[in-house]
Write a structure and sequence with these properties.
about 200 residues, mainly alpha, 11 helices, about 75% helix, about 0% strand
């Protein structure tokens, strides 16, 4: 039910469901621990709120699940909310939540770091992205293909800036090799015409 409400953007009904879950916990829960099906319901809700830009509602849902499970939410919930903040350019809140995650002793995973790396790159903060990559390795998260592709983009942007080209668009980055080959081919054709 929560998934259907989240997918169809029926936020009022979704909020009502969350309030019900908070006010009357599942009877299958053992003592202070909540039902294992509670967190996925909140995950759908938080994701839907973030997707729709309703970040304040997402934060309230996040705080509710924290209280409900009497502990720390999973890294997935943190990632969803961090990504939501960054998607809507609320970078300060995203990094505050990341720091809170560290304080709560929730271990960031490769997805957490990739979300943050991508944000630094979009905002031309390449030095911070490299520092974060080092932190990623220190915290035991193994970089994946996305991590390395992000670093390659950083390197290309740095090279372009050193050469005085300014910001290189992603389209130019993708065909940089073809462009050089076409230029060489044109030069050869000119030489052949001059010689012939």
């Amino acid at each position: 039910m929560a998934r259907t409400l989240a997918i169809t953007d029926r936020f009022f009904e979704l909020w009502s469901l969350l309030e019900f879950l908070v006010s009357s916990p599942c009877s299958c829960s053992d003592g202070i621990f909540s039902c294992s099906r509670t967190e996925p319901i909140f995950r759908f809700a938080i994701n839907a709120y973030c997707r729709a830009g309703k970040l304040d509602d997402a934060v309230v849902a996040f705080d509710s699940i924290r209280k409900l499970i009497n502990g720390k939410p999973s890294v997935v919930l943190y990632n969803i909310l961090i990504n939501g903040f960054l998607k809507f350019a609320r970078n300060d809140q995203a990094f505050e939540l990341y720091n809170r995650m560290i304080r709560d002793r929730v271990k960031p995973d490769v997805f957490t770091f990739n979300i943050l790396l991508s944000s630094y790159c979009r905002n031309s903060q390449y030095g911070l992205a490299l520092d974060l990559f080092k932190e990623m390795k220190e915290k035991g998260a193994s970089p994946n293909v996305i991590s390395f592709n992000t670093l390659i983009k950083i390197r290309k942007f740095h090279r372009a800036k050193k050469k005085g080209l300014g910001r290189v668009g992603s389209e130019e980055m993708g065909r940089g090799g073809r462009k050089k080959k076409e230029e060489k081919k044109k030069k050869k054709e000119k030489k052949v015409k001059i010689q012939g």
